[in-house]
From TrEMBL:
TM regions (residue ranges): 12-31, 37-56, 63-82, 88-109, 147-167, 187-204
Keywords for this protein: Membrane, Transmembrane, Transmembrane helix
Origin superkingdom: Bacteria
Protein name per its UniProtKB record: Intracellular septation protein A
Composition-biased stretches (Polar residues): 217-229
Start and end residues of each stretch annotated as Disordered: 209-229
Organism: Solibacillus merdavium
Length: 229
């Protein structure tokens, strides 16, 4: 248990390197000899490599993992087909809005993606998927997954709006700063989401404890009836 904080620090450091620092360096030093578009494409490579590494390392062959790999494939394809650095950023905005639209649909039909992330995580901890899903849909727990889903929607809209604003204000020359601003904003939303997931964990523990306490009197009553017979 004592190693977890160090592991979290390492993960944050690696994300900073592969999603912000390396792309920023590649963009700034590569755009002059390679051109804006090629430099921008190459700046996405560290993030792709790290995401694939985490996918394989965590063995996330589940809904969450499939979504990560699928979005990575779609995003890379869109980038390659963009044709220019500016169009690549614009297409990224449209792609972000597309994912946000999907999150909205899942929110409306009450099948929050956040719940299935929790089911996958619980499965990695050794819990049955069906039992976890049934538990998470219980009243008092489910609403928190809807709240996280709402945060996903707000994050998608905000990040798309931020990207559009920065592109309009600074143009393609501001791409390096754009990476930093988006990463900081992404961390803020990640902290909010993680806080909500921790809260759900507490709610689940209280719900499980309460259910266990409610079953105990029934068990004791059954024992009394059996002894009487």
């Amino acid at each position: 248990m004592a190693k977890k904080p160090q592991s979290n620090k390492n993960s944050i450091l690696l994300e900073l390197l592969f999603y912000a620092a390396f792309p920023y360096i590649i963009w700034n030093f590569g755009r002059e000899p390679l051109g804006d578009y090629v430099a921008m494409l190459l700046s996405t490579v560290p993030g792709i490599v790290y995401t694939l590494y985490r996918f394989i390392f965590d063995r996330q062959f589940n809904i969450t993992g499939i979504f990560i790999l699928g979005s990575l494939l779609i995003g890379t394809t869109v980038d390659l087909l963009s044709g220019s650095a500016e169009q690549m950023i614009i297409n990224g905005i449209y792609l972000s809005l597309f994912y946000t639209f999907l999150y909205c649909i899942l929110f409306i039909v009450k099948q929050p993606f956040s719940l299935y992330i929790a089911v996958d995580f619980a499965y990695l901890q050794g819990y049955d998927r069906k039992d976890s899903k049934t538990l998470f849909f219980q009243k008092g727990i489910f609403k928190w997954f809807q709240i996280i889903q709402a945060v996903f929607i707000i994050r998608g809209l905000f990040m798309a709006g931020l990207t559009a604003f920065l592109l309009n204000k600074y143009g393609i020359d501001g791409y390096g700063d754009m990476l930093i601003y988006k990463k900081v904003a992404g961390w803020i939303f990640s902290i909010i989401v993680m806080g909500l997931f921790f809260n759900i964990n507490n709610v689940v523990q209280k719900h499980t404890k309460q259910s266990h306490e409610n079953k105990q009197p029934e068990t004791q009553s059954s024992e009394v009836v059996t002894e009487s017979v």
